[in-house]
Specification:
The complex is a heterodimer of chains A (78) and B (119). Chain A has one domain: GMP Synthetase, Chain A, domain 3. Chain A is 36% helix and 28% strand. Chain A has a three-stranded mixed β-sheet with strand order 1-2-3, covered by helices on one side. Chain A is globular and about 35 Å long. Chain A is built from two helices and three strands. In chain A, strand 1 and strand 2 form a beta hairpin. Chain B has one domain: Glutaredoxin (3-Layer(aba) Sandwich), CATH 3.40.30.10. Helices cover 48% and strands 13% of the residues of chain B. Chain B is built from five helices and four strands, in the order H-E-H-E-H-E-E-H-H. Chain B has a four-stranded mixed β-sheet. The radius of gyration of chain B is 14 Å and the shape is globular. The relative contact order of chain B is 0.19. Classes of the chains: A alpha+beta (78), B alpha+beta (119). The interface between A and B is medium-sized, with 15 and 14 residues.
Chain lengths: 78, 119
């Protein structure tokens, strides 16, 4: 279980320009829809973009704070 | 990472064109995302294999390490990692997936069951 601010914090630590929007899918604070907008995705494949976000969430997924994520990444222009 | 696990995974993704590592089986998925992925590939009409790794933590860790991707399911097409439906659905929408699968299978599926309903 993790709150929106803590989850956003994990992503912003890795991707400082990220704009993050979070939707709790189940009301249990561990299954989320997450949308991340960042310039860091530019020039990367979709898989590489998701890997960037997953690296930020690795710890939270490993210790069970986050169980599942449906992820959308959007490239923002500088 | 144990070498035998690494070899086992390499063998599995090389021997079947579409491999889904998930929670549960094709007939009895035990996770909403695995179910979603099974339905996704059922609709495409190509044969695919689901390998249940729910109870196999060492293999799940090996898979996460190989792919730099922490969640299940994980999809491989022709031995190459394609993430999950968050990646595959946009690829289906852009037509990229159709090309990838036709290249992998050398043509269209024998009998497509349905068209995919994209959100």
């Amino acid at each position: 279980m993790i709150d929106d601010d803590a989850l956003t914090g994990l992503i912003v630590d890795r991707l400082p320009d990220a704009q993050v929007s979070i939707h709790d899918r189940t009301g249990t604070m561990d299954h989320f829809n997450v949308t991340v907008r960042s310039q860091a995705f530019k020039g990367k494949t979709l898989i590489e973009q998701h890997q960037l976000v997953y690296r930020a969430l690795k710890g939270a997924l490993a210790d069970g704070r986050v169980h599942a994520v449906e992820l959308t990444t959007i490239i923002t222009e500088s | 990472m144990p070498e035998d696990l690494k070899e086992e995974i390499a063998r599995e993704v090389a021997s079947t064109r579409i491999v889904v590592y998930g929670k549960g089986t094709k007939m009895a998925p035990r996770c909403g995302f695995t179910l979603e992925t099974v339905e996704f590939f059922n609709a495409l009409g190509y044969p695919f294999e689901v390998i249940d790794v729910l109870e196999n933590m060492p293999k799940r860790e090996a898979l996460s390490e190989i792919t730099d991707w922490p969640t299940l399911p994980k999809v491989f097409i022709n031995g190459k990692f394609f993430g999950d439906t968050d990646i595959l659905e946009p690829m289906a929408a852009s037509g990229e997936l159709k090309t990838t699968l036709e290249e992998a299978f050398g043509g269209a599926p024998a009998a497509p069951k349905a068209t995919i309903n994209l959100r």
